[in-house]
Every structure is written in C-alpha cells, then in structure tokens.
Amino acid sequence: MSTASKPKNIIKAPKVSNQKLFINGKWVNSISGKTFATLNPATGQEICQVAEADSADVDLAVKAARKAFESGPWKKMSAAERGRRINKLADLMEKNLPELAALESLDNGKPLRDSLNADLPLSIKAYRYYAGWCDKTHGKTIPVEGEYFCYTKHEPVGVVGQIIPWNFPLLMTAWKWAPALATGCTIVLKPAEQTPLTALRMAELAQEADIPDGVINVVPGFGPTAGAAITSHMDIDKVAFTGEGSTGQLVMQAAAKSNLKRVSLELGGKSPNVVFADADLDAAVEGAYFGLFFNQGQCCCAGSRLFVEENIHDAFVEKLVARAKKQRVGDPFDMATTQGPQISQEQCDRIMGYIDVGVSEGANLLSGGKRVGSKGYFIQPTIFSGVKDNMRIAKEEIFGPVMNILKFKDVDEVVQRGNKTFYGLAAAIWTKDITKAHRLANSLRAGTVWVNCYDVFDAAAPFGGFKMSGIGRELGEYALSLYTEVKTVYINLG
Ligand code: ADP
User: How far is residue 487 CA from its own chain's centroid?
Assistant: First the structure.
C-alpha cells in the first residue's frame, strides 16, 4: 500500500529538537554560538532553534568540501559506486517517506498530501535518475589534424555552493545534490532560513547512505551572511542558486567580484497560461486552477497571467470561481486540506499588499482577498478579472494564491502580450487545435511550455528560464554540464 492511500490523518507532525550545522560529517554548533528559530507557518510558533552559520562556518564547510574533493575517498571511488550510494540515499528516503513528508509539511506548511504525493516522489526520482548518470557521462574522441590522439573528459567542477529557497525544500535539495553528486563534486548547501529542517535530515540520511564525510555540508543561515559568504568565497568553484531575481543578481555580482565561479540561476516568473475558446474547458479550468494555486501559489513557474479568449471569458471565469470555492484551506496535516498557510508573516503581508494594489488599480476582485483565521499565515484563494497588462499585479511576481485573469482576442495578440515580460520561465496553452498549439509553443519565449497540462515535471526533462528567469537548465542530461568542466587532452603520436 502506498503511503498516500493510508487512512486519513494518520501521520502526525514530528517532534523536532534543536539542530546543528553539518560540516565534515559532524554535527557542530556555529562558531558564534548563534541560533535562530524556524517557525511552523500554520501556527506562527517556533518549532526549534537551528545553529546559525556565518562566514567562519561557511569557511570550515568549504575547507571540508575541498579536502573531500581533492583527497577523500569520493575522488577515488568508481562512478558506478557513486551511483550505488546515491541510489541508497533514495532507498533511505523511501524508507523514511512519511517522516520526511511530515517534516516538510511542518516546516513549510504545505499540505501533507502534497508532500507525500509530489515533493517526496519527485525528489526520490531525481536521485535515482542521476544515480543512473554517474557512469554514463563521458567525453569524446576528436579527429584533430596532425599526429595527435585527442579526447575530452567531463570532470567535476569541484566544490559547489548551493543556495535554495523555501517553497520546495526537499525537491530543491534533490535538484541541487543529485547532479552534483553524480558528477563527483562536493557540496556546501545553504537551505532557506525559513525551512532548514529537511536538508539537515537529508544530511543525516546521506551519511547513512555512506556518502563520505565532507562531500555534503549543510550550513543553515541567512542570505546576506551565510549566503553571501558562499557566493563570494574564493575556494568555491561554482554556485547554483534558486530564488528571487534580485538576489540572483547579487549572486552573480559576488561571483564576478570574487573568483568568477560558475553560476547557474533559477529565478522567478510571470508565466502566461493561455486558454483558447476551442479548449476542453473543464480541463482548462482545472489546469488554470492547479497551475496557480498549487503549493499556495508559491511556485516560480505559477501560471500567474491567465489569458482567456474573449468569447468564452465569462463562462470560464464563472467555472473558475466555483472551483476556487472548493479549495480547503487549513491544517496541513489534515489530509482533506488542499491549501496550507503561506511560508511567513513577511510573505503573507506582501501578498495582502498585492491584493490591495490589485483593488486600487481597478481589477475586479471576484473571490477571496482576505486572510483566513488569526493564527498562522493563511490567505483565501483570490481571483481578479479585468486585469490589464500594465497593472503591477500583472507584471510583478506575487508568489501567493492570487490569480490574475486577462482577456485576449487573437493568437498574434496573445503571443505578443504573453512575451511582454522580463521573465521567461514557463508558459501553457489550452486548445484542441494542434496548429495553434505548435505555433504558440514556438513563439512563447519560455524555458518550458505545457500544452493542455500544467506543472508537469520529470527528472529527465530540463527546467529553467529564458531572459531574467535564470541561467542554465536543471534536471535531465542538461544539468550535468552545470557541474562539469570539459578537459581536452592531446597525445602526441609522432
Ligand atoms: P525568497 O523570496 O524565495 O526568499 P530569496 O532570493 O530571498 O528568495 O531567497 C532564496 C535563498 O537565497 C535563501 O536561501 C536566502 O537565504 C538566500 N539569499 C538571500 N539573500 C542572499 C544573498 N545576498 N546572497 C546569497 N544568498 C542569499
């Protein structure tokens, strides 16, 4: 029986005690002795204290990662053996699946049903997928002129710094760790300050999976301190970052000013989701709904500009509002809950601010718009129609359960308006007309285009952004290049 089909509410929030940093295979306090609280977003109460890393701790973690990279057993291990250990980590995640899912829901607030059915399976799949790549990533032999034998090698980039956000803590850890481990890199990971718990638990499981000491180091802390210490460190070879665009710019600046470390960025979006009159309307309503409200609207690829063709607009909006009324907002540990709290008071205030902006800009507030309860950070699923391209709610990333509906008339117009954004992470199209589907898939400038579906992810298929939505592609074979350097070798045969 799969965990997801267990009886209702059987999985309880775990008891968690204070947490330390994980450096060189040891659990240690921060050098400053400082700690910070991680909160339960459903209640606003402290879950526990977590050791707070700063630059001195990051430095120790980098030294451990460097040593593990240069001279530890990791370097000598065969690629196939690395793959076996990554698979073992995936096995341990399966063994501890309910506990990991509960820890994720406790720290992040996402409904347990989503942790069980989305975050955990997708994370496990990422480790298994990259475990398979370990002994399959290789170079070429190249027919150069002259009496030379020339070949390339794909070598690990070295010590990698990884900085992740709070919206999918386990999954973002998996997207970062799996390709880095597969290619033989060593890691210093900083989880988001709001959600450090599952990355720390994963470090424990990695040790149980015989990933050698120093290969994975986890340093919870804040962006401007621990995060900045990673991005500006002279002995980190590459930084992989997921988060806000403005932070991504700081990451790139710091990399440029320090040692020109390689940078990959997965940033925000304002993705167009386009519904044509000839679409299967019920499927499109469900897709539009899921595409925005999944994960409390806290997805970088959320379909946050919903373009609906003029002649079905009113009927479509009516169905959508009816669908929003079915959302169950509440306790993440109740298996009937479909929407949990936002991550923090700060995000909650920011989203409520955007709802006020939408009203004052003249959009029609059709549903929601208020907080739910007085405890925790819950917000009603909110729908605006009559949204215009130049409104702030149509241009800026809200990162919450706020849907913006815009009307359009024809294909050329919607392509032009869909692309009128600095972002380019994702797009979707709902139509039964294959020509229209292909035409839009060709014309929309986005890293992923979904046709008659939304939020489909697979470890084998790349994900990342055009334009200001990022640099590089995670997942799939493409991500291997983020973690490798190509070396060219000439052998004189003369
Ligand atoms: P979000 O809105 O998702 O919190 P952020 O970009 O602020 O987006 O945060 C994503 C990650 O980046 C977090 O782990 C955060 O601590 C980290 N971070 C924030 N500021 C910086 C910075 N100046 N340098 C490096 N990392 C940072």
Answer: 30
Write the residue with the smallest CA distance to atom 25 of ligand 1.
Answer: 227
> Can you read off the two tokens belonging to residue 7?
């009886």
- Give 122 Cα–ligand 1 centroid separation in angstroms: 23
Q: Which atom of ligand 1 is nearest to the CA of 167?
A: 3
Measured from CB, residues less than 6 Å from any atom of ligand 1 are: 163-166, 190, 192-193, 222-224, 227-228, 231, 243-244, 247, 250-251
And the tokens for 397?
A: 């990333």
Report which protein residue has its CA nearest ligand 1's atom 16: 223
Task: Point out the residues that are catalytic.
Answer: 266, 300
Atom 21 of ligand 1, nearest CA residue: 223
Q: Which one, of 363, 50, 301, 4, lies nearest residue 191 by Cα? A: 50
Which among 260, 321, 379, 328 has a CA at the least distance from the CA of 113? 328
Q: For every one of its 494 residues, what pLDDT tens digit does the chain have, with 9 covering 90 and above?
A: 344 444 556 888 999 989 999 999 999 999 999 999 999 999 999 999 999 999 999 999 999 999 999 998 999 999 999 999 999 999 999 999 999 999 999 999 999 999 999 999 999 999 999 999 999 999 999 999 999 999 999 999 999 999 999 999 999 999 999 999 999 999 999 999 999 999 999 999 999 999 999 999 999 999 999 999 999 999 999 999 999 999 999 999 999 999 999 999 999 999 999 999 999 999 999 999 999 999 999 999 999 999 999 999 999 999 999 999 999 999 999 999 999 999 999 999 999 999 999 999 999 999 999 999 999 999 999 999 999 999 999 999 999 999 999 999 999 999 999 999 999 999 999 999 999 999 999 999 999 999 999 999 999 999 999 999 999 999 999 999 999 999 999 999 99
Residue found by looking up tokens 């390339």 in the block: 152
Residue type, position 17, single letter: S
- In the reported structure, the alpha carbon of residue 85 is separated from the centroid of ligand 1 by a whole-number distance in angstroms of 30
The minimum-distance atom of ligand 1 relative to the CA of 191 is: 14
Output the residue whose Cα is nearest ligand 1's atom 23: 224
The alpha carbon of residue 229 and the mean position of all alpha carbons in its chain are separated, in whole angstroms, by 21
